[in-house]
Amino acid sequence: MRQRIYSLDALRGFSLFGIILMNIVGFTHDTFHLDPFIMFQHGWNRVLYSIDVLFIKQSFYPIFAFLFGYGLTMMKESADRRGDDFRPIIIRRLLALFVFGMLHGMFIFSGDILQTYALVMLFGAPLLFVDKVFSVMTSIILLCYYVMNHIVPFVINGLQLPRYDYIVTDVQRAEQVMHIFNSRDGSEIIALNMHHFFQFFFVTDLEGLFFRLTSLLPLMLMGSYARRSGWFEAIAQQSRYNRAAFLLLVTGLALKSLPLIFYARYSADAVGGYIGGVLVAAGYMLLIIRLSEHASFRNLTQPVSLLGRMSFTTYILQSVLMFMITYGFSLYGKLNLAATYAIAVLIYGLLVLTALIYFKRFEQGPLEYVWRKITYLK
């Protein structure tokens, strides 16, 4: 049990490192109006962005989505053992997460994912109460729908009209954005951040909602199925999953290399980003679960696992620190990728040190504590 829980915390802590490496690029550069493949096409920027595309981009949010479903199922099992009705518990938990995510997205980082996770699971929660086979079949159907309706059309259009298979850039708008984010005017910075949040990340219509339901809910339901089927225990005990992890990583990385081979092609990025990203994420999960069986790995990664125990707090703190550094020092659009990633590593290291000190006195993160109080009303 301790090893299984350790692997969950290690996965969360590991994912937080990938998430800050991914988020800091969007935090410090205008990826809304400029194509990052073009922005980072020269010298070390190209090398580092290629590494980002292969190993980081879209390969960490699937882990969090998976663990989100896994964690909610653990909570349901605990409520069932106590004889409690889980429905009001999960509704309070998701509504609280939605509010936290809205505040985070509007005032700190427009790319917030918390409110999206909460909204998606509010619709998907009934599937936690049905037979696990029906639940996982639903996730497969939703995943197939997403691929057929949001990836295949891009590939067909890209093959038929290759000259239009690139992200449209708006240099003039990007210059305006950079001016505002470097102005140190708090009201203007927050106003623009809110605009980006509601324009690019908040669900405003049924089409946007269904897009998120078909892309994210399958991953959450897979996490729920993993819990109900004892996947983590089986993976930890059977060495054949070493080969599975290797195959997933090789296949996923091959798909994620497509936008580097067919440079900056949107259709290639769509295939590599989602399908390849999910496969690489699955490979990462299998690898960490297997490695968590070894005492040497647990000793080495124990500080990272502590960070995973307060993943909610860490996710918000990462954004707060990126906000302070980027806008406080007027760095938006001015950094190369080496400096960008150096800041991310510095922030992550600082948070690991904070977790080491914090858990000498406390048993859970501060936001986790508040979230739990709202969830259980006690």
From TrEMBL:
It holds the Pfam family DUF418. This is DUF418 domain-containing protein. The keyword Hydrolase does not apply. InterPro entries: Bact_Transport_Assoc (IPR052529), DUF418 (IPR007349). Keywords: Membrane, Transmembrane, Transmembrane helix. It comes from Macrococcus carouselicus. The chain crosses the membrane at residues 9-27, 47-70, 90-107, 113-130, 137-156, 209-226, 246-265, 271-291, 312-332, 338-359. Residues 228-378 form the DUF418 domain.
